Fold:
Amino acid sequence: MSSLEIKNFGIIGWPVGHSLSPHMHNAAFKSAGFINYNYTLFPVRAGKLFFAVEGIKGLDFRGVNVTIPHKSTIIKYLDAVDSDAMVIGAVNTVVNDGGILTGYNTDVAGFLAALKEADFLPEDCHAVVLGAGGAARAILWGLCKRRAEYITIGARNQQKAEALAKDFLNYGNVEGFDWLSDDFNDIIKTADILINTTPLGMFPNVDDMPPINLKLLPEGALIYDIVYNPVETKLLKTAKELGFLTLSGLSMLLLQGKESYRLFTGEEPNMRVMTKTVRKLLGLK
Ligand code: NAP
Structure:
């Protein structure tokens, strides 16, 4: 089936040149026969966001993804925000329904779906989250929604970790620590899962990893790095060598993309095509 209807999409952020989203969505549109659906990169500097949002309406874009540094700032320009995105305080997908802009956060669904694919049940677990930025907020909300028993945040900046924990205290048992502290090193001994949400290890800084002593974690813990480029970060490689189960950020990337596609089109994307496209771009088979 092919459709001649014209619909435009894009990703707004700064920088956006590295984004895999145009490739992933355009491949899925093509495979679905949407020959006039087009997804483009939009570099939008901080300070220019208002004009970009007006542009979405003026040019009648069907939807956009949103990345750093606009995920939180964009909320004030939207007409409505979905409840997940409201709690997280960040939007990564905007849908335009006839000039009414609604914001969503598909990172939560992507994160939880990736855990499900890996057969990890977050209910009643002790989760350790490294980093206290935007992705950490989405992940904390996902863990709270699925009733993780205890969530430990470890970050280089203790105040940020504590402040983030405070934001989620109404939803779960969350505590923040300096990731170099003795208390943190003690607490991670009971972790069921450790999730890196910092960019440490991301291309081109592939020799970096969070300063965590993985040997302190119990046998059988899952080490999850949401960085997807490279797919096997130094953290995951080290964890694998120590015998831990590992999960890369690739599945979260694909599954948050799947959720955005559903919101944009009301249809299911061809995940085989999306996956093949992204894997090829990342130099995988
Ligand atoms: P962010 O809001 O900028 O937060 C980054 C966090 O990492 C902050 O807590 C920051 O600490 C910390 N950090 C940054 N550089 C660090 C360093 N050199 N040493 C220690 N800590 C450092 O970014 P984000 O949106 O959360 O994204 C974080 C990562 O997740 C990126 O690599 C992104 O590509 C990835 N991500 C992946 C997916 C996926 O689908 N797989 C989805 C979303 C994000 P400070 O606050 O102290 O600066």
In short: The two ends are 29 Å apart (CA to CA). The pocket of NAP is lined by residues 68, 107, 110, 131-136, 155-157, 160, 197-200, 202, 226-228, 249, 252-253, 256 (CB under 6 Å). DSSP finds ten helices and twelve strands in the chain.
